[in-house]
Structures are given as structure tokens and as C-alpha cells.
Design goal:
Elements: H1 5-18, H2 52-64, H3 73-87, E1 92-111, E2 114-116, E3 119-120, E4 127-131, E5 135-139, E6 142-143, E7 146-147, H4 149-160, E8 166-170, E9 192-196, H5 200-205, E10 208-228, E11 236-241, H6 249-267, E12 272-277, H7 286-294, E13 301-305, E14 312-314, E15 321-323, E16 337-343, H8 346-350, H9 353-357, E17 363-365, H10 373-380, E18 385-391, H11 402-405, H12 408-429
Parallel strand pairs: 5-8, 8-9, 11-12, 11-13, 13-18, 16-17
Antiparallel strand pairs: 1-2, 1-10, 3-9, 4-10, 6-7, 10-12, 14-15, 16-18
Length: 430
């Protein structure tokens, strides 16, 4: 399935519902026939052990399903695929439904009559409008995973100026379109469209037209919970988010691959609970939030495999992707990097420190604050906790595809280090 197929289907549905059936559905590089049906999820991966190649196939399968936005057909397909992977390991599967207010929208931007890629800034406005004189700006739309102050200020400026629509070219690596995580509530009311930064100059020089439609509708998805072994004992909890804005190869896929590998490695000998939660991109991480509200967490150790667990940096000359550097300072927000936040006794941590170092992962030990979903896990349980996170220039863009942002070697290095750390920890606790 193409990256844009779920977007087109959603767009057509919104257009029909809002009476904008005349809005062109052409998307550069998209085969419209692909929107007819969502393909069945890939079969569970198999092989002898979790090699880098097998881990990479999981990332490829996940990424190839399409844009992983919560509440969409691709999201439902992904949840079933993840459940089937774990079911093939003889896990007991529970699907925990949750509901939310879902933004459903569609946009079209043309420059001198040519359509360019675009998407609405989710939840910012509802209704339908069009303009041949939209407010135009180019800026960095995100700080980390949230809306930048520059984006918020520009939206306010457009609203004050009385613009019908704001079209924002997002600055970022390779000129890609990037979008922030957001809360599921109506924003400023200013219809805002995001386009790739590489069109900035053309927007300034050409004749720009924009059309926008958006609404908030009932949404639903499912957390995927898998249990191995005797759950009367205190389990190892392995957690990973399942959704995101685009195909999310490194952002989501690498953590999912490592989570599956850990489940299979330890599920035969220890009680293990795996929690896969969609809705990461809708704050405050609505799937995990629903899970934690419904479940009391007791764990020997929580392994939270968050964002960009095995993200790499690509050499543009050779095409080789090598593991991004590890970071020891949680206050740093570099262009690319990985880190792990750890809550445990320092003496216990010292038994696994050397294992993490083999994947260039210095730790923020017992930090005063946590990133993203790590904060939810830290607040929900007093258990020892390891929360992995990272950043990359292609984070929250359509450029986060397997060959750009990870590799079999990067995945193998991270998985082996994490698996040895877990084995050492479980061995030291008996």
C-alpha cells in the first residue's frame, strides 16, 4: 500500500461529508487504485533467532502499511498485525478498545495550478474554506515533537490579519513536511495547511491557491496486550507505541521490532506482558493513557521502547546507515541521537551499564523528569524502568523510511545490548 493511500481515502470521505467533492484528489506519486482496500497485514516474521535482517524485515513490514495515524484503517491493520506477531509466539492476546475525538481533514494547495503535497494542522480548525490569497510563511514547525513557538505565533499573525487560510512551509531535513503532536481539542480556529519546506521559494514567487476541509468525528482504536507465562508472578513489562504521523520506520518500527524480539526471547522463561499502544501522536498519548487508567501496573522491570530506538544516520555518499550517537544529557536536543532514561538503584544499574554501553547508550539515571510516554510509565508505577527515546532530522516526516533511518546492523546492535541488559537484570533479581 502506498504511503498516501490512507490519506486519500480519508480525504475523499471528508470531502463527500463536507460537500467538497470537487476538490481534486491528485497526489504526486500516488496510485489512486491503491485506495480501494487496505491490504491484509503481513504474515508474522519467522527465522532462527532475531538477527539484524529479521529485525529489519519487521521494520519494513510495519513501514510499508502506510501512514500510521490512530483511528484510521492503517491503524487497525497495524494493531492486528502486531497482535498476530505475538499470537504466533503463543501469547494470550487482549485487545483493549478506547475512543477519542478524531480529526478528519483534507487539503489542497496549488502553485501556478500544480498540486503540491499538503496536510492540515490537526485540530487547529474545523469547517471548509478556500482562498486564492492565503497567508504564507516558512518556519520550523516543531520543537522536539511539539508545535514550535514560531508556528503558534505565525498562526496568530494570520488570524489577526484576517486570512482565510494559512499555508506554512515547514523547514527541515531534505525540505520534508513535518508536523507536531497535538491535543485532541479545537485550536485557534485558523485553518492551517502544512507543506514541505522545499516549496518555500515557489510559494513566494507563484500564484497560490488553497482549499481546506476539516471536522472532528468519533474515533476508536485498540491497545494490544499480550501475556506470556504465569501472570500471578510479577512480569517483565515490554511497552511500545504503535502509531505516528507517517510511515515511522525508525520512530516506531525499530522499537516495535525490538519489543517483539524481547517478547520471544524472554516469554518462554519469564512472565512477560507486552503493551502496544496506538495514539502516541495525539496527546497526552491517548492509547497508553487509556491502558494505564484501566490497569494497575506491577512489574519486575518496565522496558519502554519509545521513539527512534535504533535510529541511524545515513551517509549520503555511500548510502550506509550507521547508529546515531548516544546522548547522556537529557537537556540536549541535537539533530540526531538516542538515549535511555533509567530508574533503579545505582548498584543495580551498574550491573547492566556495560551492556548498554555496547550500543553507545549512556543513561540518564534517576532523572527528575521524563520524555513523552516515559513520564506516563514513571508516574503509573514505582517499578524499575528503562525508557528509550531519540531524535532525527526526519522525525515526523514522510522521509522516515527504513533505508533512510535504520539498518540491520543498527537494529542488531541495539537489540543485543538491550537483551543482555534485561537478562543480566533478571538474573540479578532472581
Amino acid at each position: 500500500m502506498s504511503q498516501n493511500s490512507d490519506w486519500i481515502a480519508s480525504r475523499r470521505q471528508v470531502m463527500k461529508g463536507l460537500g467538497l467533492t470537487g476538490l481534486a484528489l491528485a497526489v504526486p506519486g500516488c496510485v489512486v487504485a491503491a485506495e480501494a482496500a487496505v491490504a491484509p497485514p503481513p504474515a508474522p516474521t519467522s527465522g532462527s533467532g532475531w538477527t539484524g535482517e529479521r529485525l529489519f524485515r519487521v521494520v519494513q513490514d510495519y513501514s510499508a502499511m502506510g501512514n500510521h495515524r490512530v483511528g484510521t484503517a492503517v491503524d487497525a491493520q497495524t494493531n492486528n498485525w502486531f497482535a498476530n506477531q505475538l499470537r504466533a509466539m503463543d501469547a494470550e492476546i487482549t485487545m483493549q478498545p478506547f475512543t477519542f475525538d478524531r480529526f478528519d481533514g483534507a487539503t489542497e494547495v496549488t502553485i501556478d495550478g500544480e498540486t503540491i503535497p499538503s496536510m492540515p494542522l490537526y485540530y487547529e480548525a474545523v469547517g471548509e474554506t478556500q482562498s486564492d490569497r492565503p497567508h504564507l510563511a516558512t518556519l520550523k514547525a516543531t520543537t522536539g515533537d511539539r508545535a514550535s513557538q514560531a508556528l503558534q505565533d505565525e498562526i496568530a499573525k494570520a488570524k489577526t490579519a484576517g486570512a482565510a487560510i494559512a499555508v506554512i512551509a515547514t523547514e527541515g531535513a531534505g525540505g520534508e513536511l513535518s508536523t507536531p503532536n497535538c491535543y485532541p481539542k479545537l485550536g485557534s480556529g485558523m485553518p492551517t495547511i502544512l507543506v514541505p519546506g522545499r516549496y518555500s521559494e515557489a510559494l513566494a514567487k507563484g500564484k497560490v491557491s488553497a482549499r481546506y476541509a476539516g471536522r472532528i468525528v468519533p474515533g476508536e482504536s485498540n491497545n494490544v496486550v499480550a501475556r506470556f507465562g504465569d501472570q500471578a508472578a510479577t512480569p517483565l513489562v515490554v511497552a511500545t507505541p504503535l502509531s505516528g504521523w507517517f510511515t515511522c520506520a525508525a520512530e516506531r518500527g525499530t522499537g516495535i521490532a525490538v519489543a517483539l524480539a524481547l517478547a520471544e526471547q524472554f516469554g518462554g522463561d519469564y512472565p512477560v506482558t507486552v503493551v502496544g499502544s496506538p495514539g502516541h501522536e495525539i496527546l497526552h498519548h491517548i492509547g497508553l493513557e487509556a491502558y494505564l487508567k484501566a490497569n494497575r501496573v506491577a512489574a519486575s522491570l518496565i522496558m519502554h521502547l519509545g521513539a527512534n530506538v535504533a535510529v541511524g544516520q545515513k551517509d549520503l555518499e555511500t548510502g550506509q546507515v550507521t547508529l546515531a550517537h548516544g546522548l547522556g544529557n537529557p537537556k540536549e536536543i541535537p539533530e540526531a541521537g538516542r538515549m535511555v532514561f533509567v530508574r533503579m538503584d545505582e548498584a543495580r544499574f551498574n550491573t547492566i551499564k556495560s551492556e548498554l554501553a555496547t550500543a553507545q547508550l549512556p543513561a540518564a539515571l534517576n532523572p527528575p523528569s521524563w520524555n513523552g510516554e516515559g513520564e506516563l510509565w514513571a508516574n503509573a508505577a514505582g517499578s524499575d524502568l528503562m525508557s528509550f527515546t531519540g531524535i532525527h532530522p526526519l522525525f515526523h516526516t514522510s522521509g522516515d523510511i527504513p533505508t533512510n533511518t535504520t539498518s540491520p546492523e543498527a537494529l542488531a546492535t541495539v537489540y543485543q545490548a538491550v537483551a543482555r541488559a534485561v537478562a543480566t537484570y533478571l538474573g540479578s533479581t532472581g
